[in-house]
Design goal:
The chain has 753 residues and is an alpha/beta fold. The chain is flat and about 105 Å long.
Length: 753
């Protein structure tokens, strides 16, 4: 069956869109969501009721902390606090950790490690997907249940200073705010001074309950010069002084008070890579420090050790419990028990039960077979043991049995919360592999079919012959049978998790038939193009189907460059990829040219009989292929002109020198201006030329360039060469006169007068 090029191309694009859409549907899984709405309409659950007793604890416990300050330092890596840099540049913070005045953790942030998804994770306790990265530049109001909304609904007064992303995510939530833009990266100082200038005043006030500070300077330093820049140390010292100021203010206010203590939370939204960027999943990007600092904490002092690794989603539930707020409905985090360990055992069990009840309810809303999940069963066992402990407690039993049972219930709750949180988190990052594989197979088949027909598409009147005979072959029916069997096996085992299994069986069978048919057509086309190439001479448009090594290199380079754009670090340094590809292409071109002139043997350059016999309609060639034949004749004439026998000596050496001239020119252009992120601050040839100290060198360079132009022009026309030389010399002397390096005679006369 013959198809016109336009129809063939559009058909391939439509099938390709189907494959890409199926892949994306599997790559971006549906996030874990709670039921629509905010807050808990039914209220918090009561304590597990023991047999024959009723508990009076049916409300959320009172706050652990009176007020809190969240100090978020953008792009703060864990080694900036817990490594050598922390000891050197953050001595006060290190002292608090070593003396046991804080609980320290390393919070692991899930990709994408950019600001807006990380703020969402900090406030909702959920794990944003990769689709959130597209909304990072234009953040809208956050509709999900979150810590900020819960605090406002509880009547708490919130003040914010820092990155304006918070203002866009939480409009009308702050009684006072001052947002700063995060996209002027060269600003290291003012972007943080705009936050710090409010600090002295707001710390003296008593009209707030939650203060959020988001500092951006460290992130900007990383983007410009990386994590090992000499600017990082002073910025860390600045942050250490801010921590000292806030902590000292808290200590002065708590003197003589019996009320709940104040809490200072120091954290980072994400880290930074060794190149200073972020967005990926390297260790430096996902590991951030987390410090809970309060006067109520009294731990054993000791040397600074590497803290425990927790999830960033654990911060939201811990802050909610600490401030006496409901846990956000979509939170998949678990409470950090050391932060509330100063409370009684009954209060600690109450906190763990609230957290477990919220996670189990979220599991019920997102997993149909939740009752069979091991984490849900463990929570029910812990809840039953909790009820037994409540019974002993209400009976005023003070024996060792009560203490041991309490420790056992705590351990059961912690194990259940750990598995519940892990089970819910896996649903967010669990990709639909079956749908992704099917989409990838479709996309690759269409791509391979297009590549096999690229030579034919060079002609404007190309027609594509799609063989239908393979669709009646045994291979086609075997492929359909095998893929159908795979589909049945996969879908009967993972129906609830796979999108491709949830579509109708008729649609799925149609996709299977399409995949099998494309594979058979591709195999037939490959056999025709490579196994039996003499068949291609019957169609003039197919006579250009041979691929050289240079063609394959260009194709591989194009595919590699397009693939590199999927990573943020490659986008920031895209020009480096271009530099590498251009150099590789020039060297390959040089090798091909040298082989053409020095390694090829003398051969007959007669016009091929296949082309001679197809020079017109009288020879049996249809008129629709006449343009193709003309194109092949012109290509043959060009190859004959460039052959080693007919090429002149000057043209031969020019062809040999061209790749090296291109390489030298590219290297010179690279030196003109440093681009990208990591090397933009370094001096380059452009800075050197524009410097007033190198005017003489610039004048010499201009003179040499004009001389070269003069030599080239003189080979063609002597009159033009004389005019060019005169204008060039006039331009050089004018420049030298303007810069004061030489004076003309009339200038000297005017000076003497």
């Amino acid at each position: 069956m013959r198809l016109r090029s336009g129809f063939f191309t559009w058909s391939c694009l439509l099938v390709q869109a189907l494959g890409v859409g199926l892949f994306l549907r599997g790559f971006f899984p549906v996030p874990v969501r709670s039921q629509p709405g905010r807050g808990t309409s039914a209220g918090p659950p009561p304590e597990p009721p023991p047999a024959g007793f009723s508990s009076n604890w049916t409300k959320i416990p009172s706050p652990v902390f009176k007020r809190a300050v969240i100090l978020l330092i953008d792009a703060l890596r864990d080694d900036f606090v817990f490594g050598p840099k922390g000891k050197q540049f953050m001595p006060y913070t290190t002292q608090l950790v070593e003396k046991g005045r804080s609980h320290s953790f390393i919070a692991e942030a899930k990709p994408p490690t950019v600001t807006m998804p990380r703020i969402k994770a900090l406030t909702t306790g959920s794990i944003p997907g990769f689709t959130e990265i597209m909304m990072n530049l234009d953040s809208q109001a956050l509709p999900d249940d979150n810590l900020i909304w819960q605090a406002k609904a509880a009547g708490k007064k919130i003040i914010f200073y820092g990155d304006e992303t918070w203002v866009r995510l939480f409009p009308k939530h702050f009684i006072e705010y001052d947002g700063t833009t995060s996209f002027f990266v060269p600003d290291f100082t003012e972007v943080d001074d705009n936050v710090t200038r409010h600090l002295d005043t707001v710390l003296k006030r008593e009209d707030w309950d939650l203060l959020i500070l988001h500092y951006l300077g460290l992130d900007h330093i990383g983007h410009i010069s990386g994590p090992h820049s000499p600017l990082v140390g002073p910025k860390l010292s600045e942050m250490d002084n801010i921590i000292k100021k806030i902590h000292a203010s808290f200590l002065s206010k708590e003197e003589g008070e019996v009320a709940s203590p104040h809490l200072l939370v120091v954290c980072g939204d994400h880290g930074m890579s060794e190149m200073g960027s972020h967005g990926g999943s390297s260790e430096g990007e996902v590991h951030t420090p987390l410090l809970f600092i309060a006067s109520a904490f009294d731990r054993k002092s000791g040397p600074l050790k590497r803290p425990e690794l927790i999830q960033q989603t654990d911060i939201a539930v811990t802050l909610a419990i600490g401030l006496g707020l409901p846990i956000p409905r979509s939170s998949v985090g678990r409470i950090l028990l050391p932060v509330v360990q100063q409370k009684t055992i009954r209060e600690q069990l109450r906190y763990l039960h609230l957290n477990g009840f919220q996670l189990s309810r979220l599991l019920q809303e997102n997993m149909p077979s939740y009752e069979k999940d091991p984490s849900f069963e463990m929570f029910k066992v812990a809840e039953k043991s909790h009820g037994s402990w409540i019974k002993l407690y209400l009976e005023r039993n003070t024996s060792e049995v009560l203490i041991n049972l309490g420790k056992k219930v705590l351990k059961q709750y912690l194990e259940a919360l750990k598995i519940l949180s892990s089970s819910l988190s896996k649903q967010v990052v669990q990709y639909d592999m079956y749908s992704m594989i099917m989409g990838t197979v479709i996309a690759l088949e269409v791509l391979l079919l297009l590549l096999l027909n690229v030579p034919k598409a060079l002609s404007n009147r190309a027609e594509f012959e799609v063989p239908l005979s393979p669709l009646c072959s045994l291979l086609f029916f075997l492929m359909c049978l095998m893929l159908s069997a795979v589909h049945v096996v996969v879908c009967t085992s993972m129906e609830s998790l796979c999108y491709f299994c949830r579509i109708s069986w008729l649609t799925a069978f149609g996709v299977i038939v399409m995949i099998s048919g494309l594979l058979c057509v591709i195999l037939a086309a490959m056999e025709k193009a490579f196994v039996n190439p003499t068949q291609a001479l019957k169609n003039p448009a197919a006579s250009t189907s041979s691929w050289s090594e240079l063609d394959l290199l260009i194709l591989a380079g194009t595919v590699g460059h397009v693939s590199s754009l999927a990573a943020s670090s490659f986008i920031e340094e895209e020009h480096q990829t271009w530099y590498f590809l251009i150099n590789t292409l020039c060297l390959a071109l040089c090798q091909e040219v040298y082989g053409h002139y020095f390694l090829t043997k003398k051969r007959d350059l007669q016009l091929p009989s296949a082309i001679r016999s197809s020079s017109g309609e009288s020879k049996g060639v249809p008129s629709c292929h006449k343009g193709d034949v003309d194109f092949l004749q012109a290509d043959w004439k060009m190859s004959k002109f460039m052959s080693s026998e007919s090429a002149r000596g000057s043209e031969k050496w020019m062809a040999l020198a061209t790749p090296w001239v291109i390489l030298i020119s590219c290297r010179f252009l690279r030196s003109l201006n440093q681009t990208g992120i990591q090397w933009a601050h370094r001096s380059d040839l452009g800075h050197w030329l524009t410097s007033s100290e190198h005017k003489a060198e610039l004048s010499l360079l201009a003179s040499v360039s004009l001389v070269l132009i003069f030599i080239l022009v003189q080979q063609r026309c002597s009159l033009v060469s004389k005019i060019a030389m005169a204008l060039g010399l006039l331009g050089v002397y004018s420049y030298r006169a303007a810069t004061g390096m030489v004076e003309f005679p009339w200038q000297q006369e005017s000076i003497s007068k």
